[in-house]
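User: Could you go from structure to sequence for me? I need the amino acid at each position, not a summary. Structure tokens:
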């Protein structure tokens, strides 16, 4: 058995091949271009790399052209976490020395000794990878838009509070086309105070508004002409120039979000799993695409629903040492999937009576806090999604949240909860209930 480790960099990559005893077979430094990739493939072919028995490869990234070349065929590529690789490095050398060749050797030895403990990159289809690229890009663009919008809001608060008061009445505030058009027409409070009714109405029409223009024009004109504090004229003009620069970034971010949203919808609806994902309460096109992007369509990626729940950080984790034991929430997770799950649960509570009933049960009967109850509902939904994807079934509300045989009597919300004699008055004694509910949730 032969194992390959690659330490990647921006301009070159170090490649190491070892056998099952740890003996070094070959080492090579290749360039980051098509010629270098061909040298790597030739090196693997020289050491009996075939389509039926490919050489597994360990590398510290899961993206890029190098990974795309390695994933051709049936070759297994293992994306090793850099933190895990750093811990393995201490096993081979206590002097803390480090080199690119040594890191490649460490990665190869990880596969030689602990290949079973690491997961290869999923064998997702080309369409699923395209959805992942677009969904993650749209999510990054949304976060970038929020960041630029916060910067613009902070700047307007310093010298242009009339704009914030005028746009607070609108949904999405500064990101609306009307707000962008008015800020372009009047970058300073003095310019806004001089705007006439026809100028305000023309700006609203340019932004695409068709109804209620006269009423909005009067409201905006009253706000802009009210009494506000001002900076000196030169300082105010300079702040206006700074605002226009941020405004251009915000406008570009809004355009990117809209364009990527259309691309995500088009790609996601063509995927074979779209019907199953959209059948779940609370999952729309954009949020469903984000879930598909992180789960992929490789049915063998997770051995069971427990692995997926741990990957999404919805299942609890037990820590035991001697006589002490505790059950806490996970911290290592897929951040994108966990963020999508948080939004998913909020929408599912309104769309699914069973999800709302489960949330109420966790809050009232089990004594969970709001975040714990949401995680429990997400834990149930993500497990049901795994089952439906494995068996090609759509979501079924009665099967997902069956009605109990007997009506469960919930405690009166106005009655006080039992309090431990040693615990403070504001801390309910619910540790035993939490343990029982966690076991019931699995």
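Assistant: Here is the amino acid at each position, in order:
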């Amino acid at each position: 058995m032969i194992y390959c480790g690659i330490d990647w960099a921006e301009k070159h990559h170090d490649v190491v091949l070892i056998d099952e005893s740890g003996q070094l077979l070959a080492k090579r430094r290749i360039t980051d271009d098509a010629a270098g990739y061909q040298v790597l493939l030739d090196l693997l072919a020289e050491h009996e790399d075939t389509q039926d028995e490919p050489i597994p490869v360990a590398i510290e990234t899961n993206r890029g052209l190098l990974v795309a070349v390695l994933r051709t065929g049936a070759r297994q590529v293992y994306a090793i976490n850099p933190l895990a690789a750093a811990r393995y490095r201490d096993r081979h050398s206590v002097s803390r020395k480090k080199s690119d060749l040594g890191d490649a050797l460490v990665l190869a030895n990880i596969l030689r000794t602990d290949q079973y403990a690491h997961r290869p990159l999923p064998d997702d289809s080309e369409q699923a990878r395209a959805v992942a690229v677009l969904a993650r890009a749209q999510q990054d663009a949304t976060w970038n838009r929020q960041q630029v919008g916060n910067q613009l809001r902070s700047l307007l608060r310093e010298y242009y509070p009339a704009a914030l008061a005028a746009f607070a009445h609108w949904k999405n505030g500064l990101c609306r086309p009307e707000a962008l058009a008015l800020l372009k027409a009047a970058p300073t409070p003095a310019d806004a105070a001089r705007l006439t009714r026809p100028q305000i109405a023309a700006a609203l029409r340019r932004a695409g508004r068709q109804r209620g223009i006269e009423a909005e024009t009067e409201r905006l004109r009253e706000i802009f002409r009210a009494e506000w504090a001002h900076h000196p004229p030169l300082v105010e003009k300079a702040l206006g120039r700074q605002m226009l620069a941020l405004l251009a970034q915000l406008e570009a971010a809004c355009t990117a979000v809209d364009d990527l949203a259309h691309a995500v919808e088009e790609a996601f609806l063509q995927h074979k799993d779209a019907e199953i994902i959209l059948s779940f309460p609370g999952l729309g096109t954009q949020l469903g695409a984000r879930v598909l992007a992180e789960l992929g369509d490789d049915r063998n990626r997770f051995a069971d629903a427990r692995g997926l729940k741990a990957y999404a950080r919805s299942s609890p984790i037990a820590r035991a040492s001697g006589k002490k034991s505790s059950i806490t929430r996970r911290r290592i997770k897929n951040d994108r999937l966990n963020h999508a799950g948080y939004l998913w649960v909020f929408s599912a509570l309104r769309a699914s009576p069973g999800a709302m009933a489960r949330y109420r049960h966790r809050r009232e009967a089990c004594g969970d806090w709001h975040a714990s109850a949401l995680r429990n509902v997400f834990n149930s939904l993500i497990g049901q999604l795994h089952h439906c994807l494995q068996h090609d079934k759509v979501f079924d509300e009665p099967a997902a949240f069956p009605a109990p045989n007997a009506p469960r009597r919930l405690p009166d919300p106005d009655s006080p909860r039992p309090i431990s004699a040693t615990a403070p008055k504001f801390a309910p004694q619910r540790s035993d209930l939490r343990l029982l509910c966690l076991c019931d949730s699995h």
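One structural detail worth keeping in mind: The first helix runs from residue 34 to 46.
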